[in-house]
């Protein structure tokens, strides 16, 4: 914190201000940096001429094309409580996602949300209270995670959360007629399957539907689990088939040999674990020679529904969380995730509302490497250096002028046993040429900060 706070305090203020709200920093927790705070409020997912915004809009439209079931919440502010982000969802106290090396804390009670699931409880409560008359909702927002630096990782990305709710007709279970919600789920599923059937690009699904090691919740019947998980999976497959179809079509138009472009899309469902869903899965799509993870999902734990005000046993729901940036990068052929954040109009003016087109790179500016090597501190009372802390130092010094940071060498001295690390920082601007003097100054700042903070 000393590093962060001294910067925050440099304008004479002892208060952190994000999105018009004020927060008291906390020496033991605060690790959100001014450079991160400056990225809050950009709302790329709301811009209708930005790849992330265009994709968000396309997915919302597709999901609502079947039965217009989803209300979209897209303006939630990025600061949430640790309760909303973790506790409300049943994250154990020692879950690694809570650690300061992975999460940006504002203070001990508030943080920059790490996923859109942070707003699930509130939205379920709204649905329960009758404030909305739709059986589902979508939440799109910017999310924040401390992470490595390279072309596909950025400390801010975007997610869309989706949830769908059925009220259980419990009284019918005592009679011989099919409960109303089962009939409704069958109808909803049928509509979805018909729509999926009409998609021009078919999805070929690999799915081990057994629940071994991925158990259902006791309050639900096998039939309910079957119908609900099919509805969940078909909804996501519909989105994927729609979005990727547009890409395959445009590749077919521009490729010399159109027969090389696949006419089907291979996807697979993998069992997963999330504290607030059971059973849970992730979906991966086979794209240009590799499996790409797009989304985590599952059937919402009864506990979360109860916290939102639903009576025990009364409700069945599914939830998913879809990453937008990776899909947008691949659809629009964006070579570096930093481009999403550039204000350069050569980027901005290439996109139009509702259209998925291929990005045309403007001149790529040369990159320059600098290495920094240091002996790891050995004494116990020195703070350990987590790789994400190093990333943060580089980000603070050079912001979006860094293309990547990679560990290139590790050395253990044979006699002393001391270990040294060498990181290679690749400097490159998206928008202009950098001078050597400028890069040297940035590198000097990284070196000074490393030695000041960790005494290396
Ligand atoms: C989650 O964030 C859960 N909240 C998803 C969820 C919601 C599960 C509702 C169950 C019910 P995960 O960390 O796997 O899970 O992230 C979800 C998706 O966000 C990933 O599949 C991926 O598409 C995207 N994502 C995750 N990390 C990154 C990253 N560093 N950069 C870009 N996209 C990412
Ligand atoms: Mg995941």
TrEMBL record:
Transmembrane segments: none annotated. Gene3D superfamilies: Bira Bifunctional Protein, Domain 2, Ferrodoxin-fold anticodon-binding domain. Its main location: mitochondrion. SUPFAM superfamilies: Anticodon-binding domain of PheRS, Class II aaRS and biotin synthetases. It is found in: Mitochondrion matrix. GO terms for biological process: phenylalanyl-tRNA aminoacylation. CDD domains: PheRS_alpha_core (cd00496). Keywords: Aminoacyl-tRNA synthetase, ATP-binding, Ligase, Mitochondrion, Nucleotide-binding, Protein biosynthesis, Transit peptide. The keyword Electron transport does not apply. One of its GO terms (cellular component) is mitochondrial matrix. Residues 141-361 form the Aminoacyl-transfer RNA synthetases class-II family profile domain. InterPro entries: aa-tRNA-synth_II, aa-tRNA-synth_II/BPL/LPL, Fdx_antiC-bd, Fdx_antiC-bd_sf, Phe-tRNA-synth_IIc_mito, Phenylalanyl-tRNA_Synthase. GO terms for molecular function: ATP binding; phenylalanine-tRNA ligase activity; tRNA binding. It is an enzyme of class 6 (ligase). Residues 363-456 form the FDX-ACB domain. Its EC number is 6.1.1.20. It holds the Pfam family FDX-ACB. It catalyses: tRNA(Phe) + L-phenylalanine + ATP = L-phenylalanyl-tRNA(Phe) + AMP + diphosphate + H(+). Belongs to the class-II aminoacyl-tRNA synthetase family. NCBIfam families: pheS_mito. Is responsible for the charging of tRNA(Phe) with phenylalanine in mitochondrial translation. This is Phenylalanine--tRNA ligase, mitochondrial.
């Amino acid at each position: 914190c000393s590093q962060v706070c001294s910067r925050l305090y440099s304008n004479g203020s002892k208060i952190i201000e994000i999105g018009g709200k004020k927060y008291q920093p906390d020496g033991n927790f605060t690790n959100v940096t001014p450079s991160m705070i400056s990225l809050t409020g950009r709302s790329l997912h709301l811009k209708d001429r930005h790849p992330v915004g265009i994709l968000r809009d396309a997915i919302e439209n597709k999901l609502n094309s079947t039965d217009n079931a989803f209300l979209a919440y897209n303006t939630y502010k990025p600061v949430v409580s640790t309760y909303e982000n973790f506790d409300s969802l049943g994250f154990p106290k020692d879950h690694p996602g809570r650690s300061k090396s992975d999460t940006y804390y504002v203070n001990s009670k508030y943080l920059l949300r790490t996923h859109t699931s942070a707003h699930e409880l509130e939205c379920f409560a709204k649905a329960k209270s009758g404030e909305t008359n739709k059986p589902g909702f979508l939440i799109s927002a910017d999310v924040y995670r401390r992470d490595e630096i390279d072309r596909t990782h950025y400390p801010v990305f975007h997610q869309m959360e989706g949830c769908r709710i059925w009220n259980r007709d419990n009284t019918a279970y005592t009679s011989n007629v099919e409960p109303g919600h089962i009939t409704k789920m069958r109808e909803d599923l049928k509509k979805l399957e018909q729509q999926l059937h009409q998609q021009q690009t078919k999805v070929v699904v690999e799915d081990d539907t057994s629940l071994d090691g991925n158990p259902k919740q006791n309050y639900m019947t096998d039939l309910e689990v079957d119908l609900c998980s099919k509805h969940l999976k078909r909804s996501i497959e519909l989105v994927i088939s729609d979005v990727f179809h547009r890409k395959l079509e445009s590749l077919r138009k521009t490729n010399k040999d159109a027969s090389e472009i696949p006419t089907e899309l291979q996807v697979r469902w993998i069992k997963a674990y999330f504290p607030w869903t059971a059973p849970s899965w992730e979906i991966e799509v086979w794209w240009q020679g590799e499996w790409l993870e797009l989304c985590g999902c599952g059937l919402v734990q009864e506990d979360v529904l109860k916290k939102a005000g639903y009576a025990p046993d009364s409700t069945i729901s599914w939830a998913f969380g879809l990453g937008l940036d990776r899909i947008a990068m691949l659809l629009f052929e964006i070579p570096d995730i930093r481009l999403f954040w550039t204000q350069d109009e050569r980027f901005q003016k290439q996109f139009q509302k509702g259209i998925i087109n291929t990005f045309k790179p403007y001149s790529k500016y040369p990159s320059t490497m600098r290495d920094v090597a240091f002996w790891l501190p050995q004494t116990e009372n020195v703070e350990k250096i987590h790789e994400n802390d190093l990333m943060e130092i580089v980000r603070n010094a050079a912001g979006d002028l860094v293309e990547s940071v990679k560990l290139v060498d590790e050395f253990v001295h044979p006699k002393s046993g001391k270990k040294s690390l060498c990181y290679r920082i690749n400097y490159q601007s998206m928008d202009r040429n950098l001078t050597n003097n400028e890069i040297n100054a940035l590198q000097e700042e990284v070196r000074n900060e490393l030695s000041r903070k960790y005494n290396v």
